[in-house]
Amino acid sequence: MRNDPASTATAVLARVGGPANVASVTHCVTRLRLTLADPAAGDEEALRAVPGVLGVVSGGDVWQVVLGPGVVDEVTAEVRKLLAGRDAETADAGRAAGTAPAAEAGRGRDATPVRTALRRVAHVFVPLIPALIGCGVLAGLNGLLLNAGLLPALTPALAAVASAFMALIPVFVGYNTAREFGGTPVLGGAVAAVVVYPGVAQVTAFGVHLAPGQGGVLGALAAAFLATRVEKWCRGRVPGALDVLLTPTVTVLVVGLVTLYGLMYAAGTVATAIGTAATWLLATTGALAGLLLGGLFLPLVMLGLHQALIPLHATLIEQQGYTALLPLLAMAGAGQVGAALAVYVRLRHDVPLRTTIRSALPAGLLGVGEPLIYGVSLPLGRPFLTACAGGAAGGAFIGFFAMLGTRVGATAIGPSGWALFPLLAGNRGPAVLAAIYGGGLLTGYLVGFLATYATFRPPVPVTATATATPAGDPGPRHLTGPPER
Fold first, then answer.
1. Cα–Cα distance for residue pair 98/102, rounded to 1 Å
2. Which helix (H) or strand (E) holds 10?
């Protein structure tokens, strides 16, 4: 039985200090992200116990509530409804008192500068993931039709639909960047649009003609960030009567010229270096690179920092048509599935835990690893490490074939596990790519299972009593031993 989104939203807000304690709300594919004015007012343990909550990641003022794909969209919508009326009242009260929002007072108490920067970059790119997935699936379907010679009248239309977003993605990045850093979003989009405007081919910078799209999302990110700084500088110095005319004009002019004669060239150089480095890394040290990337990705997911890799993926997709890093990272999920199956076999008498595993495995097979991380491997400790070992083995498998000249990539960001098959792309045919990627998954499953089965023993005595898990709720309700974090 599925939990009611409205009830889940109400329960979540009650356990993070109430609606008044929530400064902002966003979400990604699986997580509801709440920025809290006072993190100390939240009750993390009570939040974990809410039916439908699969896990909680608290770091500073941003709390990530793991709900799973699909569910997170519905719960986020309900949370926003509950916050809608309060936002206006809070803003009016803050202006009347002449004080900054409470969130600013609480921001950064526990967050490091690096984590804050990564979080803000993630906020720029996470909203783009649904479009990246949709366009990536269509691009993969169009490639299959072209290879098979089917529906020749339809493939040009599919190519246009699938490619349009990727051609203009710098504009969306610029819009989100300006919004995240306190500028006017449309001005961020305007200066980022310079990057993809075809007319830049007539402009010469550093002795060479620029190319439309040069610098890609990195150039757009830098341009929009600079635009927020120029805009704020102007607003502090331009008289109010002229602000509406001069501020946007100066912002677009100054940042546009800087983008043309500096940022596009610099960002293009960085983007080219990223592509060259990724190609060299896989061609020369593919097995080692796959081992490290596949083995270390689960800790990044656990900390919620994996979204910071999105700019790298987007840059590679722009340059090469696919990102060869994503299939390597996806092997972490395979190791997680193998480890969970071993725990399922080992703990034959732990009914609540086995129920959690059965409920979370389908999501794990489709690449959504949070239910298994927070419901199984992380609370038990050692299975988390053996899951990383399985991910490392799967990544090394795919990386080994990259060293032999076969690069397996993905045309979009987001899906992994079995859901990544429709998005596979590379320098070989679809059957070869699918066979190598499938071999990596099987390797991850097998090594994760064997490593966990060989090293994990049920804790004796049980130190935390199990409680019943509500029907349809795979969330953690038990600990068969002390958590090892």
1. 12
2. helix 5-14
- pLDDT of 109: 46
Dihedrals φ, ψ of 481, to 5°?
-175, 170
Residue 355 CB contacts under 8 Å (≥ 6 apart), including other chains? 469, 474
Q: Give the chain's length.
A: 485
Rounded to an integer, what distance in angstroms lies between the CA atom of residue 467 and that of residue 469? Answer: 6
Q: Which residue has the tokens 């086995």?
A: 354
Q: Which helix (H) or strand (E) holds 204?
A: strand 204-205
Task: Please state whether beta strands 208-209 and 204-205 pair in parallel, antiparallel, or not at all (unpaired).
Answer: antiparallel
Q: Quote the CA–CA distance of 170 and 165 in Å, as a whole number.
A: 9
The pLDDT of residue 98 is 43
DSSP 3: P
Q: Where are the beta strands (DSSP E) in 350-434?
A: 408-410, 424-426
Q: What stretch(es) of the chain map to CATH 3.30.1360.60?
A: 5-111
Peptide bond into 461 cis (omega under 30): yes
User: Looking at residue 323, what is its pLDDT?
Assistant: 93
User: Is 5-111 a domain of CATH 3.40.50.880?
Assistant: no
Show the low-confidence residues of the chain (pLDDT under 50).
Answer: 88, 91, 93-110, 461-485
Please tell me which residue in 28, 135, 234, 388 is annotated as part of the active site. 28
208 beta partners? 205
Contact 9, 78 (CB under 8 A): yes
Prediction pTM value: 0.77
Examine the residue annotation and report whether 388 is marked as an active-site residue of this protein: no
What pLDDT sits at residue 459? 63
> pLDDT digits over 54-71, tens only?
778 876 788 888 887 778
- Of 288, 321, 272, nearest to 403 by C-alpha is 288
Question: pLDDT digits over 337-366, tens only?
Answer: 999 999 999 988 888 888 888 888 888 898
